[in-house]
Every structure is written in structure tokens, then in C-alpha cells.
TrEMBL record:
<dbReference type="InterPro" id="IPR016047">
    <property type="entry name" value="M23ase_b-sheet_dom"/>
</dbReference>
<keyword id="KW-0732">Signal</keyword>
<dbReference type="Pfam" id="PF01551">
    <property type="entry name" value="Peptidase_M23"/>
</dbReference>
<protein>
    <recommendedName>
        <fullName>M23ase beta-sheet core domain-containing protein</fullName>
    </recommendedName>
</protein>
<dbReference type="GO" id="GO:0004222">
    <property type="term" value="F:metalloendopeptidase activity"/>
</dbReference>
<dbReference type="InterPro" id="IPR011055">
    <property type="entry name" value="Dup_hybrid_motif"/>
</dbReference>
<dbReference type="InterPro" id="IPR050570">
    <property type="entry name" value="Cell_wall_metabolism_enzyme"/>
</dbReference>
<feature type="domain" description="M23ase beta-sheet core">
    <location>
        <begin position="31"/>
        <end position="126"/>
    </location>
</feature>
Length: 241
């Protein structure tokens, strides 16, 4: 069991849990049942802890499009995601996995993520998130139906490493596992990284991947980056930290 994490830095909080005054429609008092993070449109949303998708909805007049994940003793809800995020949300995902991208909730003055914490069927202050420990364990390996094989750590970007990357991506996205690094695989990677999905393995995508691998960020896919990736696959069956 690991400590859950907030989707964004607490320095980005624009509205806290509790009673507040809203200026919409002439102004009124409202019981705010979550925490708002001020982030731009299309910002990738990471999962707070290992979890499975338990509910979702679209076009709510107040919440917009939303997702709910079950972590065992608690659930987290993510309101204000793009319409496309609802059908494409992974059914099971590890902590930190990108589950959606931000949009603008229905009744709001600007784009943000409305984040809720639910314990025992009751919404509680999300500030208490790190007091809980999730008991749900995201399944990897053969039990997930798409195990990444151990790879030789040689720094070479070839079929064995590409196949392992495709197997990891195929857990939650539609990817053909064939060892060929084509536009379908690249778009899946781009989606998981939260960058533009143009199917081109260029500097923007490489830099985003290098940041997640915690290696030198130079936009060039070379031996250092591939070696870090191969070690990550072997150590955790994942393609970035």
C-alpha cells in the first residue's frame, strides 16, 4: 500500500472544500464538496492511487464530464475532464497514470479540475487524502493480459524494447504489439504522456518522455534515454516513472 498523491501541487488550489460564495447567477452560497485546481485546458490528470474505474458521467450541468476511481477504503472523483476522457478512461490503472485531460466544468468561470475524496459514501475534505492508504492493487504482468517482457539493457531502440513498450501501453490503450514503432503506437504513447497526438516521434514527444524517465531532456532519442527506459521496464514493468 502506498501513500496517495494529489493530482496537482497544492499551490494550484483555487477553491477549498466547504461553504463558499459563488458569483454565478447573481451570487449564492454553495457547499463546495471538493477541491479545485486551477490548471489549463487539456492538462493531463494523473490518478491519485492504484484504482479501478467505478463510475463516470457526461455533461452534468454543474460537474461537466467526470470519472470516479475506487481505491478500496476510499474513492476519488475527477470533475471537469474532456468528453473524450470518459469513454477512453482506463478501467484499471496504477498511481500516477494519466486517466484524463481537463476541460471546463459545466457551471464554472474557467477551466479547472474539481477533485473529490469519498470515504464510506461521504464526501470529505480532500486535504485528508494522504491520511488514507489504498488497498486496490493494479494488476500488471500476465494477469493483466499484456505483460511486458524483460529486456536486454543495451541502449538500443529495437524490436525487443518496442515490443515491451507496446505491451505496457496495451494494458489501457488500443495498441498492436508487433515490435514496429508506427503512428498507432506513437499516438498511444503521446496520449499517455499528455502531449499532442500527431503520430510523430519528434522532439516534443521525446522531451515529455525524457522528463518522465528523469534523464537529460534534449529531445534526442539516444542510448541514455533508451537505457533508462529498459531499466524501468525491467524494474517496474512501466515505461516511465
Amino acid at each position: 500500500m502506498s501513500t496517495p498523491a494529489f493530482p496537482f501541487s497544492l499551490s494550484r488550489v483555487t477553491s477549498e472544500f466547504g461553504r463558499r460564495w459563488l458569483s454565478l447567477n447573481g451570487g449564492f452560497w454553495n457547499n463546495h464538496e471538493g477541491m479545485d485546481f486551477g490548471v489549463g485546458l487539456g492538462t493531463p490528470v494523473p490518478l491519485a492511487a492504484d484504482g479501478k474505474l467505478s463510475a463516470s458521467g457526461r455533461s452534468h450541468p454543474l460537474w461537466g464530464n467526470w470519472l470516479e476511481y475506487d481505491h478500496g477504503p476510499f474513492k476519488t472523483r475527477y470533475h471537469g475532464v474532456t468528453p473524450a476522457s470518459v469513454p477512453s478512461a482506463p478501467r484499471s490503472a496504477p498511481k500516477g497514470a494519466i486517466i484524463a485531460h481537463t476541460s471546463q466544468p459545466g457551471a464554472s468561470t474557467g477551466p479547472h479540475l474539481h477533485f473529490e475524496l469519498v470515504v464510506g459514501g461521504r464526501k470529505v475534505n480532500p486535504r485528508n487524502l494522504t491520511k488514507y492508504r489504498g488497498t486496490y492493487k493494479h494488476v500488471t504482468g500476465s494477469a493483466a493480459g499484456a505483460a511486458a517482457s524483460r529486456v536486454v539493457v543495451d541502449g538500443l531502440w529495437g524490436k525487443q524494447t518496442i515490443t515491451a513498450v507496446q505491451k505496457v501501453l496495451a494494458r489501457t490503450l488500443a495498441v498492436k504489439v508487433d515490435g514496429a514503432w508506427g503512428s498507432q503506437s506513437i499516438k498511444a504513447l503521446q496520449k499517455s504522456l499528455g502531449v499532442a497526438q500527431d503520430g510523430r516521434f519528434g522532439p516534443q514527444t521525446i522531451r515529455a518522455w525524457q522528463k518522465r524517465l528523469r534523464v537529460t531532456v534534449d529531445g534526442k532519442w539516444g542510448k541514455q534515454s533508451v537505457t533508462a527506459l529498459q531499466k524501468r521496464i525491467n524494474a517496474a514493468n512501466r515505461i516511465y516513472a
